[in-house]
Structure formats: structure tokens, C-alpha cells
Amino acid sequence: MKQIPLIDGLRSIAALSVCAFHYVCQTIGINFPDWISATFRFGQYGVYIFFVISGFIIPWSMCQNNYTFKSMPKFILKRLIRLEPPYLISIILILIIAFIKTNFNIGIPTKDSFSLNQIALHFGYLINFSSNYKWLNQVYWTLAIEFQYYFMISFFYFMFIHSKISIRVIGYIIFYSIAILVPDPQQKHFPAYAPLFLIGIATFQYKLNLTSTFEFVVLLICGAFFSSLFIETEIGIFGALTSLIIIFFSDKKIPIFNYFGKMSYSFYLIHPIIGAAVVNLICRYCNTLFEKTGVVCLGIGISLISAYIMYILIENPSKKISSKIKL
Q: What distance in Å separates the CA atoms of residue 291 and residue 294, rounded to the nearest whole number?
């Protein structure tokens, strides 16, 4: 099985889109003109591009590594070793910055305080199961959804690659039944996003010629429809577009984006911490559109540098260790 050059480029675009949305639309006091805020609002949908990418690339990797059901503990271990170290380092950075802000009155004051219980719940991605605490980082909720998906795909992967359409259909029904029957009104858990991940799974199947064009199109339409129904219309549209881009442009490389895509996970974790702290600190002194644009670009630049350091020191070594575990 060959690699998919486009994936890293898509990851980088998704991560940069989410970052721009956070800095332009969610920074307290930055106040961009309405038309700019309305434009960058679409950056939030980068999160859902990540979900479709995971829906595609995780079974692709499982197939590449000859995944078997007995390999499930190793599969979960590989994902933990790959993703946990940058995640834990980002938590430490948050606590350090919170300590500095609280004790030295730097940046816009906040009323946030962190309890030991709140921090402990982060180690199992369990904050979404508690109504008393919130995530330390605004992007962590997506990691919880991702890990719930890893467990789901580790159980049902064999249905999706089965040669009999009847078995595959049972897998589809299970995913849609979870989405329809499991209550998730606040969209905090996997069920609400199951159709979105299934779009990625359908893309994987079609790229490996496991399904017909008709089956793929039906799954794409259903995934987009139910994502629109359970969450919002734009998410269904972006999900379907991401799938089609992978189908038709999978061999395309975008040199700068592809390079950045390798460290997009570190960037995704760190941009609401380091870059956001800089934007938060400086934006109150910015009055003109030029100054506000400059501070956002500065925040993105600092986040990129910080992400590169994290990638070299933490993420890449974790990735290498993970790759040594054979399924």
C-alpha cells in the first residue's frame, strides 16, 4: 500500500484554519471587523476535516500493518505512545502559563483555576463525562472523540473490509445506530460524529477498491446528511468535500503544507497555549486593522516555531517509538 501525500497537506490546512479561527474570532478584545470575523468563522470546520482524515487514515494504517483483532491492545498502545507525550507536555505548559499569569498579572486576567480532579480527568480524556469541569485547552475535546473512535474502529474494522456487502452494511448500521440511538445532545462524545468518521471510512474503502462507486456515493451522501442533521449543515458539507478531495487529489503534494503537516498535531495542541498567550498579551494595545492582523500573524509564527520544537523533541521521537510496535 502506498502513502497518501495529500494527507499531511490537508492536516496542515485544517490546523491553520482552526488556529486562525481561534485568534481572529475568539480572542477577547481583538474585535476584527464583522466581515473578517464572518470569513474566519469557517476555520472552525478544520476540526471536522481532522475527523474525516482520521476516519480514512486509521483503517488505512491498520490495513497496512495487517491488523488482527488480537492486535487490538498493541493498536491502542501504538496510538497512546504516538499521541500522549505531546498531549502531556501541552498540559504542563498550560499549568506553567496559568501560574505565571496568576502570579505576575500578565495578559488579560481570567478567573480560571484548576483543581487536581480536573487535571486528573485529562489523563483518561474523561472531562466530557463530567459536568463539573472543563478542558484546560479548547482543542482537547477533539482528542477525546478521536480516542473513542480508535476503540470503535478496533472492534468493527473487520466488518468494513469484509468482501460481503451484507457484513459491511451491518457495520454501517451499527455506526448509524450509535449516532441515532445514543443520546448526545451536547455533541461531546463519539456518537454525534460517527457519520463523519464513516465518511472517512467509506473513502478508505473506495480507495482500496473494497466497495463500488454506488456504495461509496450512498455512504458519502448519508454521512453528509446525518452530520448536517446531528450537528450542522456546514459540517456535512466540509466532510463530503474532504472525502472527495482525498479521492481525486490523493497523490498531490503541496510542499510547504506537506512539511508543516508532519508537525500539525504539535501545532494543533500548542497554538491555543503559546501563540494564544502572545496574542492575548499584545492585542489590547492594537487599535488598527493592520496592528491586529500583525499580532495574529505573530501568534501563528510563534506557534509554528513552538510546534517545531515540540515536534523535534517530543512528537517525532514518540512517533518513532510507536512505529516499532508491530501489530
A: 5
